[in-house]
Amino acid sequence: MGFGFATQFDTRADADSLEATPLIIFLGQPARVEILVDNRLVTSGSYEAGNNSVDTSNLPDGSYPLVLRIREASGAVREERRFFVKNAQIARRDSWSISLTRGFLQTRSTTSRSACRKASTTRSVGRVA
């Protein structure tokens, strides 16, 4: 017998922004930004000058280094190396994560109430700061 209650992030409308490290870049002029993982192009997009949040919705789940290759309108090319994390089970900064689990383990040889023993109790409430 068991019971569980937990925060679930993957059904939210803004799930992509909740589960991934934001990649913020400053561009002095319009540019094309390519994201490379293991020297392979994963996605790219065009961005205006100024501060921009790079779209990471097409990146795979996991924790890994990546390269942002920035091709400016002037023809200049530069690269920035970042570490990226995407995981639907980890709360984003300034978000709450709640988990409560309670269960009992029952042996199959007997069905008496005394045969039940406490298997685990976990309670965690936290805010990622």
TrEMBL record:
Residues 20-86 form the Pilus assembly protein E-set like domain. It comes from Sphingomonas sediminicola. This is TcfC E-set like domain-containing protein.
